[in-house]
Amino acid sequence: MKNGGKFALRHTRSSRYFVIFAGMNPCIRTTVLLAVLSLAAACHRTAPDSASECEQLPEPTRLYGIVADDYRIERQIIGPGETLGGILGRYGVSAREIDRIDKIAREVFPLRNIRAGHNYTAFIHEDSLNAPHLDYLVYERNLSQYVTFRLADDSLAVTTGEKEYEIKRLKKTAEIQSSLWEAIVGAGMPAALAAEMEDIYQSTVSFFNIQKGDRFTVIYDERMIDTLSAGIGRVWGARFDFGGKSYYAIPFRQGNKIAYWDLEGNSLRKQLLITPLKYTRISSRFTYRRLHPVHRVYRAHTGVDFAAPKGTPVHAVADGTVIFKGWGGGGGNTLKIQHNNGYTTGYLHLSGFAKGIARGTRVTQGQLIGYVGSTGTSTGPHLDYRVWKNGKPIDPLKIPQEPGEPIAAANRAAFEYVRDRIVAELEGEVADSDRIVQLDSIVVAPAATATEQPAARQ
After folding, report:
1. Which end of the chain, N or C, is more open, meaning fewer C-beta atoms within 10 Å of its C-beta?
2. Residues with Cβ < 8 Å from 41, sequence gap 6 or more?
3. Residue 135 to residues 15, 90, 120, 175, 436, Cα–Cα distance (Å)
4. CATH number of the CATH domain containing 223
5. What string of H, E and C letters represents the secondary structure of 191-234?
6. Does residue 146 have a pLDDT over 90?
7. Domain range for residue 27?
8. Mean pLDDT (the chain, rounded)
């Protein structure tokens, strides 16, 4: 622009055009303004050509919900010992404003929670004298969550937000070499999927006995932010080949809960879980003659020891009532739970008990009840897990697995519809239209054919 004038024409979502004049000749300014108004008016005409031109205007670029086109963007990493106050000060924010932000943030995200190594983004605008001003600073708490500090127009605010993510539906197959976790991570799947798979199969597959060569196929949703994994969503189905037999997991909603079922519609969740904790190894098995590691004499050990780090969560293997909570002598901190059908379970050497657990408390299968420890007579952190049937000790690893409630007759047609499509996807490629994408309202008409999609109530 001649005569030293500056001019910028920007498109924003709130207004089609934003015009900046600085030092522009008055005559030129009038001419430009008339041209802009003329163009803006054209966008409101109903003529097809004008509408087409307006539709071609680009959408604004947004970062963390802020229109980034209006700012100079600076991305930095918080260094060791840095504070938010120090960072804001470098951008010209006064000590008075920093103190106000600190007070506002206390109920949303206290400034002391800022951590080195995390990213932050500064949104800077320049005034007519080219002086920079910080309007927003966004701190990333983790991959998906962030905190926005707003300083624009002297209006201070602190808000939290979450990045938008994309859902990718994936099908992966892996072979066991040593453990489920290593197989999943080694095949490029999220580590969190190992916990999900173990939760689905914990009453069906003994993960302490899986062998090299066992394999599995799983269909799951993975959340992606940009190109990074941000966790997993629903597992849409799985097949686990273990000990020469295939164990299918079919998701289906019965009642108010989505659970997993085998091909015949039997629940994969049995009356008793195989183990009360995850990712451990067996350090001692059920026997009536074991050399005690402390007393160095042979005596009965009517339980199974699971070696695990101190603090590992311990869960109830079935619904029941706590009948003992306290010190169990050589067993240290001990819990005993009475279940149906004459079963009682014991959990020994705990480092502590879960909140709300007391004698007489009702617990549900899978509920957190305590944490692995090394209390009592113990050489290291582990859980001594015991089971009694009508007062007689039995091997926890040899309990007959009684199935839970099966698919109800009223749900059979809908379940079979879901099952057939999940199995087809597990064993081959299927069209998108044949995939099960929701489980909340599956309705199968009496005359439904194999190619018909059931109605989904919105």
Report:
1. C
2. none
3. 20, 14, 14, 52, 46
4. 3.10.450.350
5. CHHHHHHHHHHCCCCCCCCCCCCCEEEEEEEEEEECCEEEEEEE
6. yes
7. 2-55
8. 83
**Reduced to 3 states, what is the DSSP secondary structure of residue 287?**
strand
Same domain, 66 and 116: yes
Residue 173 vs residues 133, 137, 188, 195, 310: alpha-carbon distances, Å: 53, 43, 10, 16, 33
Cα 438 from Cα 442, distance rounded (Å)? 8
- Enumerate the H helices of 329-441 as residue ranges: 412-427
Does the pTM of the predicted model rise above 0.90? Answer: no
C-beta of residue 385 within 8 angstroms of C-beta of residue 377: no
Cα-based distances in Å from 93 to 119, 126, 257: 19, 14, 51
Q: At what angle do helices 48-55 and 26-42 cross, to 10 degrees?
A: 110
Share in percent of the chain as helix, strand, coil (round to 5): 20, 35, 40
pLDDT in tens, 342-400: 999 999 999 999 999 999 999 998 899 999 999 998 889 999 999 999 999 999 888 87
Nearest in space to 180 (alpha carbons), one of 101, 238, 97? 238
Q: What is the C-alpha to C-alpha distance for residues 82 and 60, in angstroms, rounded to an integer?
A: 33
